[in-house]
DNA sequence: AATGAATGAGTTTTCATTCAT
DNA sequence: CATGAATGAAAACTCATTCAT
């Protein structure tokens, strides 16, 4: 086997893994963990069912991959916001991004929040920690902004911000009303300005 | 058949239904809708599996009963709070009750909130409406207090309050940390005082 | 207990039995034996489920009652036809009656014929004999007409006639086409005339 | 994977599907649709129950496969008869084949006819159409023979022939008497000769 | 006889995971 | 690594029949 064949295969394999991860993130968000069969993810990724297990040994690993994927999406967003000079502007940018996603939130809820709820009901495993990690990543970033802003108790403020987001996403979803995102989003913006 | 016999049997049947409803509320909250088998609820209620279907035709009906049960619990609480003369005291009482439940919230989340998330992933049915109704009941009560308090936009304030509760419950659960309830609960109390 | 009470109860009981029999005949014809639950028949008869078993010890007995009911309906018809002086006219009247029922036949098939098919698949019991008896009743009446007509092999002719009826009912039902009844009915009339 | 391996496995899979189809055709004919459990078919085919669903997504699909199988059997017969030069001889051959099957007919009825009756009682689905198609296949072949014979109204004659077959099968089954097939078969032969 | 409730065996269907090639 | 096929353990739901009153 030549090096190029090997690396091409590796590339294919990596691509497949990426496709599976992306499919898992999307399908698990839309259908929920328990209602999603491995076959659903395989199909969405265009991968034969039996092959999935060469990339993910269990369904839980796919859930974890989805969690990681959503975290990565979040990282991309915060990385972009980090280019703004003003921490307040960054926080506002985050809230604005949430509001922009209002239709999705009203239909499917926050990807990480709903996964958190579903994972909590699954038998104890490393997933709880993965969820906590995903949540903490967001909390930490927000706390850093509040810190740079000179706010007292930046962790508390971060908690309030993220709780506000999770709460409004859950209510928007439960009431199937994207306007909840708009209203609460504006309140959060005003709150940030007042910090 | 005498009246007393009839009513005694009716009482037994009604009692069984109540036992099943209570069991459903508890087990579904703890294990989640998808992870709970009808047999789990039957066992918790001390009823043979086959007999459950005499009282509830489908699993969804049990979920609905659980939702109703949680709403009733909430109603009991708000009814008690309604005896307080001051709307602000009532709102504070609600928040205090939430904080008191912090261990449960950290372990299992808010019963209605987590059911809302899980139900959203189940195939469309009357359950979405049941969830929305349960959520709206809480929103309406809160809005009424804000109205009596003379706050502008009572509905908006109610939304903020309930979103705050759902958000803090979800985070407490995701982080397995009851302290989240305490901290955010205090913030909500201060916010109510400032309204 | 007075005599009138006793007889009134007896009357009620008899009436209930009749209602159950009629309901069984209708529901079993429309929904089929296996798809019909005892509860369906009870409901159609306006009788509480538990009570059915005081009149019919098993589901099979209800099927038998339905069979008897359909036979009785047939008897009523043939008794009426028997008032006609001409055996040929009687046979023609029978065929005409079948054609008149074409919509029902196209939708549900012949009551006795479909019951015969379904009963054949049920575990061996007296029902096979009940079915045979119902079928023979019709065969015998037809044979008698052919005999009076002076036809040779009246039994064979009866067989042909009834087979024709069962065949056209089955095809009308399978094709959901009442016209099958009309066309084959006319052929049978011509055949009778030629006998 | 080599081509031969692939085809060998494909052959095995196809063979299993064929075994399941054959088993379905036989067992459903003998025990009836409602009295046959998937497990019965699985056992008859020597396939584990869970595996059946890899080949047939629902019980209805198995029924449809059985219907197709019976149609195929019929096609084999008519294809053979098509080698006869005379359309009359072909029709006679068909009737003779029916009579040859008299013991089976007396015990279980016509496979397609009894399936037609049972399917009619099942909830609406594509099965009605499958039944109609199976019946029409036979009607069409018969009509073609009558057409070649120069008979007027070949469709009507086909209907008469097939109705005759269904009727005599049903009666033979209901009376558990294969002689019905013999007698009516002879009559049909004479009728064909007279056409 | 009357009746709501109880029972428990049976049936279809789903799916995570494993295996043979 | 690839892949179609296999497996077996649930799980929801149905229902004839029985029972307690």
Automatic annotation (TrEMBL), chains A, B, C, D:
Residues 37-56 bind DNA. InterPro entries: Homeodomain-like_sf, HTH_TetR, Tet_transcr_reg_TetR-rel_C_sf, TetR_C. GO terms for molecular function: DNA binding. Residues 14-74 form the HTH tetR-type domain. Keywords: DNA-binding, Transcription, Transcription regulation. It holds the Pfam family TetR_N. It comes from the Bacteria. Gene3D superfamilies: Tetracycline Repressor, domain 2 (1.10.357.10). PANTHER family: HTH-TYPE TRANSCRIPTIONAL REGULATOR YJDC (PTHR47506:SF1), TRANSCRIPTIONAL REGULATORY PROTEIN (PTHR47506). This is Helix-turn-helix transcriptional regulator.
């Amino acid at each position: 086997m030549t090096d190029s064949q090997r690396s091409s295969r590796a590339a294919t394999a990596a691509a497949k893994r990426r496709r599976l991860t992306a499919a898992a993130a999307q399908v698990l968000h839309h259908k929920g963990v328990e209602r999603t069969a491995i076959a659903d993810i395989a199909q969405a990724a265009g991968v034969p069912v039996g092959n999935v297990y060469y990339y993910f040994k269990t369904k839980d690993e796919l859930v974890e991959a989805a969690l990681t994927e959503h975290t990565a999406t979040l990282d991309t967003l915060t990385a972009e916001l980090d280019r703004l000079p003003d921490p307040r502007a960054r926080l506002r940018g985050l809230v604005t991004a949430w509001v922009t996603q209002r239709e999705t939130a009203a239909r499917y809820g926050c990807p990480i929040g709903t996964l958190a709820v579903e994972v909590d009901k699954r038998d104890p495993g490393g997933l709880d920690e993965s969820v906590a990690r995903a949540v903490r990543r967001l909390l930490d970033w927000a706390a850093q902004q509040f810190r740079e802003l000179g706010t007292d108790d930046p962790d508390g403020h971060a908690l309030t911000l993220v709780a506000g987001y999770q709460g409004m996403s859950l209510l928007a979803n439960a009431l199937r009303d994207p306007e909840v995102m708009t209203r609460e989003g504006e309140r959060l913006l005003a709150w940030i300005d007042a910090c």
